[in-house]
Amino acid sequence: MRISISLIPFRPITLSAVISLILTISFLAPAWAQQADRERIIITATRTEELVDRVPASVTVLTRKEIDLLPATTLQGLLENVSGIMVHDLYGNGAQASADFRGNSHGRATAVLVDGRKVNRPGSQAVDWNLIPLENVERIEIVKGGSAGVIYGDSAVSAVINIITRGAVAGEGVWNLDGMVGNQGETVGSVSVGGTDGRMLYYLFARMAKAGGYRENGGGEARDLNIRLTDNFMENYYFGFEYIYHKDEQDVPGPLTAAELSADRTQAGSAPVKSGFDVSTYGFTLGEVMSQERLVEVQYYVEDVQNDAEGSGYAKDNGLLTTRTILKMVYGSDEHAFTAGLDIIEHDEDTAIQDSGVDTDLSLTKKETGYYINDSYSFSDSMVLQAGYRKAEAEYDFSISGTCAGGPLDKQGSLKVEEKAYNLGMAYVYGEGSRFYTNYTHGFRFPSTHEIMDPCTGAFYRLKTEVSETKEVGLVHTFGGGTNIRATYFTGQVDDEVIMDGSGPAQESTKRSGYELGFSYGLMEGMALDVNYVKTDAEITSGAYGGSQVPLVPEQAASASLSARFGSLTFVFQGRWTDNRIMAGDLANSEPDMSEYVTLNGKMSYDFQGGIFYIGVNNIMEEEYLAYADTGSGSPVYYPAPGRWYYAGIRMAL
What pTM was estimated for this model as a whole? Predict the structure, then answer.
């Protein structure tokens, strides 16, 4: 089990932080030792089943059992305590949140998948975490670094997060019921059932949620539905259908000025907005299983998103239609795990904006095509070499009409970019649960449609593709008895990284390097400790801001998890320390930093026949800190993080 804290920052920290960390450790006593990675099989690294020890990268796996015990009620809250990740959740509701690895920010360098299908929106490369209810998650696989960039292409530069839903492993014929309440008006209820009649697999998930929010005008409601059917209609052939529906209405409180933050951090800002999403996704899968190691599969998914937002003097109506066609071929043998594939993504976006002096209609299209090959070759039982290559291109077209600042607009434009990715990695297993790994990756990120086009002025920016080169070397050594140590060093450079400086996008070079240290220790039967520390140096290395630190990246971060199991009771506590961060947009590093903070979350779970009851408290010490801050349009604005929050719930299998 890999959860996190840091106990050894390499420079002095405040006395309160030291005391908080000591309290964190003295409270904690883990109930389960981290299961050895060698016992886990993942599919994310190569799109085929692979033992974790044979993957040339740093890998984290969270199972459903672990998810049930951890003090988190949302996916972004769960990821927040994974070593090496920084989550920025502006309003605490997942609608505007990003998960960033190894010195990257705004989620642009992390590929997020659901059942192996990328869900980053082509327009912004952001992820709406509300579309992925934690109750519907069976397992999470995280491959850090860019080693999976060949497989998943655009944006898979710093990490790949693959969220495997319960529907992907349905077949038990069991009803699952989930319910939760919180002290800020939260109520969540969901039901799922999956099973098989021998030929047909079926799965149904439905959920309703309501939140009051920790800030004024911060509540919302959501409904989710997921239906999945798979028919093994011939001996070696299968056909699958999936339908996903999500609808939510969010009250967005907006940012606060310094004066508003000081007066009352829970109040709404001066420009609150109401936002709504209506998302329908349907997909088809056809595959042939030629043997246990050989497979051909094609997927076709269509996502239709309708988004509207309105506030004082502001209105936005946004429609997105994205189709994804994925062809995957797998060939396995005793020595090889070979995969090849073709991805085609077509994205259409229509946006109408009405604001002060602005009345525009924008149409954007993006078509991305890529193909790849990847092979993991086993020289022996202990050594694996992985190599791969991808070639991709993207074409953009846009048109905009209307008025801006009283003047007419009528513009059209187009852009075509192409790039390649390749990687070479090696894993050497030298003992039971012990391995050494290293990899080199050349990756890329295509410009998002939101970066190349300003919907107000009609300005069109002919941006280049961001190109990255990363190197990683790591070690996991297991002593036995639930004890191991972990160390990873990473370094990389990005050329033509998009930097937003308030006057539009610029492209500069950046460099990121650092290391991750961690250990797991089995204190005694039913008790374990897991500790992680991350040091990151993220610097802009060219242009007007050369020498400045990349915003939003803490130089140091640490987290720890302890749990203790006493019969049917399990107690889990997680502590996290995050160093100072430069606020978004402060490329000159001239504004005051966002201050360091320490948080402590706890949860008690009680197992009974067929279910689990739990109560939890997040931010036990009621630390006041910032989830996010931005230089804004001249004056900084702030997004306060939630205070102490209580919740309770029950999960049952019938």
Answer: 0.90
